[in-house]
Amino acid sequence: MIKEKGILFVLSGPSGVGKGTVRKELFERKNELKYSISMTTRDKRPGEQEGVDYFYRTRDEFEHLIKQNKLLEYAKYVNNYYGTPKEYVEKMIEAGHDVFLEIEVQGALQVKENFPGGVFIFLLPPSLDELRSRIVNRGTESEKVVLNRLNAAREEIELMDAYDYVVVNDDIDRAVTKVQSIIQSEHLKRERVAKQYKKLLEVAER
């Protein structure tokens, strides 16, 4: 029997759509998933651990990795770099683990360019009115920021065609169940199963 490789699953969607909530609930149900650990140049905070919360690197080290194309995606926030290390994801997948990455839309598009074999899931709000309500209910955003986020959401929804699946987050429980179904169905895809059987046949013929 040949061990099946893992798959990279990327969950993305507009700010306020509930990506973090869906990811948290999914991990409570499906423990064998590995969460993709990000790399950052920001200082380690009290209680944080290397390789658990983040991979911590200096600015020079991070920029060297960018030049070597060793990040699936990266961005700069508040003068610090954040990114997804390619080597960690590849090691987990080779070991047979599914890796789950929750990320903003622009980052997901970078990942798709660098790791086209991933499975890309777009989390969609039931409506822009509902998305606005969710952002407003956070109570942390000004009216101007809310409008900017909604405009950005409209633009990001237009990028939906770059994804493999779309899940409407009208109900957390339903949305998570749909994501679980996607994970299961991807492992049953003919092309993935066929690769494993071809390897078994090659071994049998020796």
From TrEMBL:
ATP binds at residues 13-20. GO terms for molecular function: GMP kinase activity. Its EC number is 2.7.4.8. It holds the Pfam family Guanylate_kin. It is found in: Cytoplasm. It catalyses: GMP + ATP = GDP + ADP. Keywords: ATP-binding, Cytoplasm, Kinase, Nucleotide-binding, Transferase. It comes from the Bacteria. Residues 6-184 form the Guanylate kinase-like domain. NCBIfam families: guanyl_kin. Essential for recycling GMP and indirectly, cGMP. Belongs to the guanylate kinase family. This is Guanylate kinase. It comes from Paracerasibacillus soli. The gene is gmk.
